[in-house]
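Question (not urgent): is this output format expected?
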Amino acid sequence: MRKLTNKKSGIEYQKRIDQALTFIRENLDRPISLSEVASAACFSEFHFHRIFSSLMHETVGQYITRKKLEHAAMRLAYSPSTRVSIVADECGYASVSSFSKSFNQWFGCRPTDIQQIKQRWDSGGGKLQTKYEKSIKANELFVHADDRFSALDENVTVKSIDGFDVVYLTSPDGYDIEGIRNTWVKLNQLVENAGVDWDTCERFSLSHDHPGLSPKEHCRYDALGLAELVRNKEVTPQELLQAALALTEETQGSINAIAHVNAQVGEINITKPASGIFDGVPFLVKELLAYPGLTTAMGSRLFATHVPEDGSGYSHRIDASGLITFGNTTSSEFGLLGSTETLLHGGTRIHC
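Got this back:
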């Protein structure tokens, strides 16, 4: 399972990747190009492919193929009378032969075998087995292979409700129980930090993948909390900080303007009481200014590891204004020159 809550990727990256996943899910019935998915996530193709592979632990093409085949397997298992040609078309394959070949390569069995899932056989030999040591088992895929859920089925109702906004987190460990528990704990903290009583929230979850088909590390589980006040808040300091962290990472390679970043310092600053006009706004100080917890090298190799314990009157005023300092920007050595080109950080460039 990917870790979309990674501090370096930031919440903005998570939102964009989720946009891409939604686009893929809504277009499984046709061929999907990398450029289309990258556009849905508002990334360049190169940057999107790199970020996607890093977070999802598989390439865009591998993810699309896997989701198509998993969707097909579910369709065949739960609608055994459906012709394979119809399922192949629904999953965007040009022919039954190409679909069957891909299906067999991944699951190690034929599409028609899935339709006979109640015979309780196990698949094996495909990429799912060789890469993830996982096979398809009848009692895992087809829940009605026994009567475990018969009592539950009697109490299930399907309802249509109007759309609404939610605040949510994705479990970094998929369906792992401890990972799910930690996700709910973090969501609880996020909601309460926003000034909302956790007990007033409606809480529910989304399980995106079937553990009988998907490798454990690729199962997606979202924990969601709903409350009127949360829905009306457009942004929180935590979200702004994560977005700022993501943007600094995204632009650093092209402009080299950041000297040091410390997300923990930013998170600590969020917890400090402040009533200034810039409450919650992320901020980068100049590397020349001593700020507690931030490496302050002043552009010199001599002070490359210097981390001041105390700030200054100026840094105190920054904190009092409500600004959330989380890093510093480059400067010339000791601020003596008008251009920023040092042996410590290299040259800072103008971004066009």
